[in-house]
Amino acid sequence: MKAIHLRAVCLAFALLISILVAVGGGVLAHLAGDGVARAVITAAAAFAATMALALTTLSFLLRR
Predict the structure, then answer these.
(1) In 10 A of CB 23, how many CB atoms?
(2) Which of 12, 18, 45, 63 could tie 51 with a disulfide, CB 3.0–4.6 Å?
(3) Which pLDDT belongs to residue 31?
(4) DSSP state of 2
Protein backbone atom coordinates (compact mmCIF):
# COMPACT_ATOMS: atom_id res chain seq x y z
CA MET A 1 0.00 0.00 0.00
CA LYS A 2 1.35 3.41 -0.90
CA ALA A 3 2.15 5.82 1.88
CA ILE A 4 -0.47 8.34 0.75
CA HIS A 5 -3.17 5.65 0.78
CA LEU A 6 -2.12 4.51 4.25
CA ARG A 7 -2.33 8.07 5.54
CA ALA A 8 -5.79 8.52 4.00
CA VAL A 9 -7.07 5.32 5.60
CA CYS A 10 -5.60 6.30 8.97
CA LEU A 11 -7.14 9.77 8.73
CA ALA A 12 -10.54 8.29 7.87
CA PHE A 13 -10.26 5.91 10.83
CA ALA A 14 -9.31 8.78 13.16
CA LEU A 15 -12.28 10.80 11.90
CA LEU A 16 -14.67 7.88 12.44
CA ILE A 17 -13.44 7.24 15.97
CA SER A 18 -13.65 10.96 16.80
CA ILE A 19 -17.23 11.15 15.55
CA LEU A 20 -18.23 8.09 17.58
CA VAL A 21 -16.67 9.51 20.75
CA ALA A 22 -18.36 12.87 20.14
CA VAL A 23 -21.79 11.29 19.65
CA GLY A 24 -21.33 9.18 22.77
CA GLY A 25 -20.22 12.16 24.81
CA GLY A 26 -23.09 14.30 23.61
CA VAL A 27 -25.67 11.60 24.30
CA LEU A 28 -24.28 10.94 27.77
CA ALA A 29 -24.23 14.65 28.57
CA HIS A 30 -27.83 15.02 27.46
CA LEU A 31 -28.91 11.96 29.45
CA ALA A 32 -27.15 13.40 32.49
CA GLY A 33 -29.51 16.35 32.39
CA ASP A 34 -27.61 18.92 30.38
CA GLY A 35 -29.55 20.94 27.85
CA VAL A 36 -29.16 20.37 24.14
CA ALA A 37 -26.79 23.30 23.66
CA ARG A 38 -24.50 22.17 26.45
CA ALA A 39 -24.56 18.58 25.15
CA VAL A 40 -23.52 19.81 21.69
CA ILE A 41 -20.65 21.78 23.21
CA THR A 42 -19.60 18.68 25.17
CA ALA A 43 -19.69 16.64 21.96
CA ALA A 44 -17.61 19.23 20.14
CA ALA A 45 -15.02 19.23 22.90
CA ALA A 46 -14.90 15.43 22.86
CA PHE A 47 -14.46 15.44 19.07
CA ALA A 48 -11.65 18.00 19.20
CA ALA A 49 -9.79 16.21 21.97
CA THR A 50 -10.09 12.79 20.34
CA MET A 51 -9.06 14.09 16.91
CA ALA A 52 -6.06 15.91 18.36
CA LEU A 53 -4.95 12.78 20.21
CA ALA A 54 -5.48 10.58 17.14
CA LEU A 55 -3.61 12.92 14.79
CA THR A 56 -0.72 13.25 17.21
CA THR A 57 -0.51 9.48 17.58
CA LEU A 58 -0.72 8.91 13.83
CA SER A 59 1.90 11.56 13.18
CA PHE A 60 4.26 9.79 15.56
CA LEU A 61 3.55 6.32 14.17
CA LEU A 62 3.73 7.22 10.48
CA ARG A 63 7.01 9.11 10.84
CA ARG A 64 8.93 5.91 11.46
Answers:
(1) 13
(2) 18
(3) 97
(4) -
